[in-house]
């Protein structure tokens, strides 16, 4: 049986490529992150992201990268979102 498309907090359908605003984060996983990584992830709240994938559980995933040009490195974090953690943003091209 196919997994239905996820919905945002307003009931809007979310698909790969949909632009969503990250409204909040919940779950024990956030408290278990190292401080620097937790601060990076929390800084994502309020920003707009394009949904990169929808997993086998029907959860949409977003990602942000933090480049460090001085060191020639980059780190990123991907997050699976719950409906109440996001809202679809129409007309935003990322």
Explain what the structure shows.
With 94 residues, the chain is an alpha+beta fold. It is built from 2 helices and 6 strands, in the order βααβββββ. It has a 3-stranded antiparallel beta sheet, with no helix packed on it. The radius of gyration is 14 Å and the shape is globular. The model has no long low-confidence stretch (mean pLDDT 90).
Quick tags:
94 residues; alpha+beta; three-stranded antiparallel beta sheet; 31% strand; globular
- The ordered H/E elements are EHHEEEEE
| Secondary structure tally, helices | 2
Shape: globular
Rg (CA only): 14 Å
User: What is the number of E strands?
Assistant: 6
How would you state the average pLDDT, rounded? 90
Sequence of strands across the biggest β-sheet: 2-1-6
What is the makeup of the main sheet? 3 strands, antiparallel
What structural class do you assign from the helix and strand content?
Answer: alpha+beta
Please summarize what this structure is.
It contains two helices and six strands; from the N terminus they run βααβββββ. By secondary structure, it is of the alpha+beta class.
Blueprint of the fold:
Layout lengths: L18 E4 L5 H4 L3 H8 L5 E3 L2 E2 L5 E9 L4 E8 L5 E3 L6
Antiparallel strand pairs: 1-2, 1-6, 3-4, 4-5
């Amino acid at each position: 049986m196919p997994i239905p498309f996820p919905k945002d907090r307003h009931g809007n359908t979310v698909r790969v490529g949909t632009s969503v605003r990250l409204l909040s984060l919940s779950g024990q996983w956030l408290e278990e992150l190292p401080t620097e990584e937790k601060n990076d992830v929390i800084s994502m709240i309020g920003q707009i992201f394009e949904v990169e994938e929808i997993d086998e559980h029907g959860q949409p995933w977003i990602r942000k990268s933090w480049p460090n040009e001085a060191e020639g490195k980059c780190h990123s974090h991907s997050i699976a979102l719950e409906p109440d953690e996001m809202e679809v943003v129409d007309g935003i091209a990322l």
